[in-house]
Each structure stands twice: as structure tokens, then as C-alpha cells.
């Protein structure tokens, strides 16, 4: 599958129709359909079935789609790197982070770094941990920050701190009278929290079992920041990481989770790729920002 064919396949998988995919790629519908037909001819199997005006992926398409996305990300990274070299951006630092550290740690680290190195280009990516790992492997990011240290052997994870959980209550909730909450307090509440097979969900499940509490979220999320709107709408209490500055959002009451688990904040690098001097300086700023922010959290009453 050539690069253009890969691009068309991914666009159709994401868009669901030829019209929308052609619009995404800024090409005509006939041109896109022709590329898709040639791709299927070369592969020797169908990628899509037409059902009620939409293209439904075949099992074969679903099987190859994750690999196609990874290849596409690698090609995108290669294009960005060649552009950077062509434009003479020799001072470039790329950092990929999961949303909580991207919002809480990177702004402080980038501010300090920029004050000392104003001519170095900074590039930030907010992504889930699987994408961060892929970006470190391809070189599309030099540094990663995530809230997990359970990573493949080729990724170095330096734990630079740990963070607990916070409870986000709708304004006026009865539990707002308490200065802190426990898992037992939340057992009978409508709960908004992480879906399974994530580090936060695993840590909460272990703590709940140890305390003899049954936690069963009625609304599962993949990113903690997405809980805000649900809490503001009165859909329940959110049990999320305590790293984000939740107090700055209106319509919420924030309470720490007492006797709750903690999970790591990790600085990630590839074991197979050397860091530039600029990368190393940014790594130092990320460490310092994390230490400072977590110290401020612990100092709060």
C-alpha cells in the first residue's frame, strides 16, 4: 500500500463516506473512489462494503487499520522532520504528554524554558499513552510525560512524582460539607470515572477491594478533563486525577480523596534514541515543574 493509498484508506475509515473523505483530503470524489478501487485490486481483497450510502469496513480493513494508523503517524512525523530541516529549525524540542500533565506541568516547564532559550522552537502534542510510545519510537517526540510507568522495554520511564485522586462534586451537593471524601462515601453515588484497563482505573479497583468497597461508575471517561461538563450537568461525582487545577472551573466543588491510591507521573524517553542538548534542558525543566506543582498540591490545606 503506497502512501497516497494509505492516506485515502485512513480518511475513509475515519469519515465513513466517500464525500466526507474526499473533503478531508481536498480531492474529488471520483479521484478518491479510483484510488480506493486500485488499492483493493492490488491488495486482492475488499476493504469496504456499501451499506445505505455509507462505507462499512470489512473485517480485513478493521484488522489492518491500527497498523495503517501507525504507519501514517510515522509518515507525518517524517514530513515534519524534513520540513524542520529545510527551514533550518535545528533547535527543536518535541514533547508528547497525556492531557493532565500537558495542562498542568508543561505550561510551567515551557515558560521557564522559553525565558532562557527564546529561539528554540517548541512543539507540544497531547495524546494517549499508546500514541506517546509510538511517537517516541519514531522520533516524532523526544520526551513524553504520562501518568503510568508500566511501559515496553524500549521506553525509559523515570518516575518524577506521584499524584492521588480528587472528587469533583456538582455545586451544592450534600457531600460538599465534608472537607475530604473516602471511597466509602462514593459507593452509593452516581460515579463518573475512568474506564477499565487504564492505570487510574486499576489503582482505584485495587484500593476499593482492599477497603471492602464496591465502585461501579455509571459514566466512564478516558480523559479526566472530559468529566467537567458531566459534573456541571449534575450527572454525578467525578473521581479523577488530582493533578489538574480543578478549582479554576466554575460549577464544581473539589474535595481530595482520603486514604486513596496514588499513581506515578513519569518522564518518558526512548532507549534507542539520543537526546539533543535542547531535549536535555527541557527534561530538566519538566522535572522541576513537576516537583514544584506536586509540592504545591501537598501544601494545600
TrEMBL record:
Keyword match Transcription regulation: yes
Highest taxon above the source species: Bacteria
Pfam families: HTH_1, LysR_substrate
InterPro entries xrefs: LysR_HTH_N, LysR_subst-bd, WH-like_DNA-bd_sf, WH_DNA-bd_sf
Domain annotation HTH lysR-type: ranges: 1-58
Keywords, sorted A to Z: DNA-binding, Transcription, Transcription regulation
Annotated family: Belongs to the LysR transcriptional regulatory family.
Protein name: LysR family transcriptional regulator
Species whose genome carries this gene: Mesorhizobium humile
Amino acid at each position: 500500500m503506497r502512501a497516497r493509498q494509505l492516506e485515502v484508506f485512513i480518511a475513509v475509515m475515519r469519515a465513513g463516506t466517500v464525500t466526507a473523505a474526499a473533503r478531508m483530503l481536498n480531492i474529488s470524489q471520483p479521484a478518491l473512489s479510483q484510488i480506493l478501487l486500485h488499492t483493493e485490486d492490488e491488495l486482492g481483497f475488499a476493504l469496504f462494503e456499501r451499506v445505505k450510502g455509507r462505507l462499512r469496513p470489512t473485517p480485513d480493513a478493521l484488522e489492518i487499520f491500527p497498523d495503517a494508523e501507525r504507519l501514517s503517524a510515522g509518515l507525518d512525523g517524517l514530513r515534519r522532520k524534513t520540513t524542520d530541516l529545510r527551514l533550518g529549525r535545528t533547535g527543536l524540542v518535541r514533547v508528547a504528554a497525556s492531557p493532565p500533565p500537558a495542562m498542568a506541568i508543561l505550561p510551567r516547564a515551557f515558560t521557564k524554558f522559553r525565558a532562557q532559550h527564546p529561539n528554540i522552537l517548541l512543539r507540544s502534542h497531547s495524546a494517549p499513552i499508546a500514541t506517546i510510545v509510538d511517537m517516541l519510537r519514531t522520533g516524532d517526540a523526544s520526551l513524553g510525560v504520562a501518568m503510568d510507568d508500566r511501559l515496553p522495554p524500549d521506553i525509559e520511564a523515570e518516575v518524577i512524582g506521584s499524584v492521588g485522586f480528587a472528587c469533583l462534586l456538582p455545586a451544592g451537593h450534600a457531600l460538599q460539607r465534608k472537607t475530604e471524601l473516602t471511597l466509602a462515601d462514593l459507593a452509593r453515588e452516581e460515579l463518573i470515572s475512568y474506564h477499565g484497563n487504564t492505570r487510574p482505573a486499576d489503582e482505584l479497583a485495587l484500593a476499593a477491594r482492599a477497603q471492602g468497597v464496591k465502585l461501579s461508575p455509571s459514566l466512564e471517561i478516558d480523559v479526566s478533563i472530559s468529566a467537567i461538563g458531566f459534573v456541571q450537568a449534575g450527572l454525578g461525582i467525578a473521581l479523577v486525577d488530582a493533578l489538574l487545577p480543578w478549582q479554576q472551573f466554575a460549577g464544581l466543588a473539589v474535595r481530595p480523596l482520603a486514604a486513596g491510591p496514588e499513581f506515578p507521573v513519569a518522564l518518558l524517553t526512548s532507549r534507542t534514541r539520543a537526546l539533543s542538548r535542547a531535549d536535555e534542558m527541557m527534561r530538566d525543566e519538566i522535572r522541576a515543574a513537576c516537583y514544584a506543582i506536586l509540592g504545591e498540591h501537598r501544601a494545600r490545606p
